[in-house]
What does this fold into?
Amino acid sequence: MAEAAGTVLLTHPVGLHARPSVKLTRLARGFAAGVQLAGDAAGPWVDAKSIVKVMAARLPQGATLHFRASGEDAAAAVEALVGLVRNDFAEVGGDAA
It folds into this structure.
């Protein structure tokens, strides 16, 4: 089974709160791979497809987000999620959170 991991600095002013969390979980759900998120490499790790768990992590601006995924599209999932955070949760067309 393919596995992938990546990290990215969270620069969004409100951190990983409502709108950014929704965008992140929506993107994560688009992949078959299991995707997890943590604010520290040692964990705790949460299901990146669960809005409740992602918001409960309460990761602030300036935190380093750690992603890990396993499944056939694990690398694509991590790449997309890191890209979303790196682009400050902007969607195609420039719609920032």
Residues 74-86 form the longest helix (13 residues). Residues 10 and 85 are 6 Å apart (CA to CA). The chain has three helices and four strands. The longest strand covers residues 3-9.
